[in-house]
């Protein structure tokens, strides 16, 4: 990456505006909660991105491909006369509209061996799991498998060491039909309340996860901005999300703004061709970026010098969890700089981050998000992200970031695009 001048010399980063990024982010959040692939909210986010790219003078191309859409109709848990809010484990099994009623068995599922010797056949498992990286329930797959093999008719999951009152969404990387048993998430307070009831006396609940799997099509957005050479930098961002996903999709807003910034420059200040890809299906095993890369395996990828992903939590205010409550601090969430171990890339990444005074920890062996798909093709890749205690939850709202925090992160990406 050394033959081109630095972002600092070109002054590209000086055109980045945190206020513009936040304006785009607000529009994405206003498109609605759960901007999942195949939903009306997801379609509004898609249309917003297309409109902004066109307004910047780009010609976005739409690439579609088939996928199986989990069409949710009704989800919840009922114990006695009390209705408990729940969120589905997508592509798990389903129930009829009236749900499935059965006795509940509590399992401390932090260790899958805790299922050994338990009679769970025909019953609903209440699983108290621990928090893993990114609010991902540790041992979820193993616990689900143990409950399913043991003959359970359903599973209710909560995190023992997480927030009291917020629901959690979890990306699915399973294919429809592989998971037969219905499973849902509930908030910690509700999970613990059910646990206490179950441990005290025999208790039954009704679990409802009424949904169907339909054929649909995902849509990627691709826009090419020619530079002085055919050497290419791919600037990728997933645009689907759970809940409001303000911090998680701050990268999408940043990628839109980078398209605006670079399209405003003369070609002499664009040393490489830039390909902007806004990929769908993030919440279903990164289907969009997989399709995007596979279609370009023989033409674009061999001349791609850098794949940059603007994904989860580029810039966030720091919060901590104390006794199940979300507590604000005066700090900025620490960030991980994840890059492949390619010649000169680490040096370029560290220079850009230091120029923007971004605190970070460098990882060259971590495969996460869309960047892990680029790694499979041995493409130099970089992503900046932070994991916060409200990730994939109802609390990821616009108040968790601001223009002052997000601007340096987008400036760093701008620098790397021209280095």
Which labels suit this protein?
single chain, alpha/beta, two-stranded antiparallel sheet, 419 residues, 14-stranded mixed sheet
Task: Please outline what is shown here.
The protein is α/β, with parallel strands linked by helices.
Structure description:
Strands 1, 2, 3, 4, 5, 6, 7, 8, 9, 10, 11, 14, 15 and 16 form a 14-stranded mixed β-sheet that branches. A two-stranded antiparallel ribbon has the order 12-13. The model is unreliable at 1-9 (pLDDT under 50). The chain is built from 10 helices and 16 strands. It has 419 residues and is of the alpha/beta class. The relative contact order is 0.19. It has helices at 7-10, 18-30, 40-55, 140-149, 188-200, 250-263, 287-294, 345-355, 371-376, 403-418, and strands spanning 61-79, 82-84, 87-88, 100-107, 124-129, 154-159, 183-185, 204-225, 232-238, 273-279, 304-309, 317-322, 325-332, 335-339, 360-363, 381-385. Helix 2 (18-30) crosses helix 6, helix 2 packs across helix 10 and helix 6 packs across helix 10.
